[in-house]
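Example 307, ligand L-homoserine.
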Amino acid sequence: MKNEIKIFSPATVANVSCGFDVLGFCLDTIGDEMIIRKTAKKGIVITKIEGFDLPLDPEKNVAGVSALAMIAHAQPDFGFEIEIYKKIKPGSGIGSSSASAAGSVFAINELLGRPYNKTQVTDFAMKGEALASGSEHADNLAPGIFGGFTLVRSTMPLEILQLPTPKDIYATIIHPQIEIKTSDARGILPKEFPLKDAITQWANLGSFVHALHTNDYDLLKRALQDVIIEPHRSRLIPHFAEVKAAALANGALGTSISGAGPSVFALSRGLENAKSVENAMRAVYAKTDIAFETHVSRINTEGIRVL
Ligand code: HSE
């Protein structure tokens, strides 16, 4: 068995418009790197975090909390040290905390000889994710661990469905450099919604899943609508309406808030289209004084990978 492992833990997009808290997909061009090694001393230590200022105390760090949950169950007679090379900005809306929470337990599971399946790994990672967002949801964790598009049918007990990825789909992300806390973005949501909106939303979610299975891009486009969450959260994102209009005018299949924001994602058919959507989104923020960065990515069907 190996004593050390280096992994790439990718960024992810949760909600995907019509699937609040249940739908997600995995990106490929942005993610964190982590090195995890066995130590003679039992327990978890985080020895290094580069990129962003995050706590080294494992009980206050999402990667540490999920790792502690896994070793409390596995009871190995050795411990682990974790190095985190963070590239995904915390609070960006593309699964920064999930990448850390999932990365540590994915790697420890590998070093233990894979005693746990991917659903169990996700379950441990949820303990870390809860520290960051205040609630145990798995819509960022599942695509990172399973790859591709995923649907979380239930969190208790945890049940994750891997959905097919049509091969021409590309994602564009624009990340305005403002910070939105997931807990705040959840706090502004109403607790009850009109039945007619719920009907629209579950019709779209079912249609989206069907479209992935049948490679039906026209249906995918019609289904990428969010009448539940986006109307409330979009007011936290400056110029959201213009970015959305620009992406759609340039051929995006659909566009909405990535996770809790502030990043906005678009899905497009083909790399060229995804790049013109990127240019159109950039042009909106280029006219403002808000700094931003963009990413274009294929959908990563592998998820976290060993480097
Ligand atoms: N589904 C979650 C939300 C993802 O939108 O609040 C962010 O953690």
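Summary: The first helix runs from residue 62 to 74.
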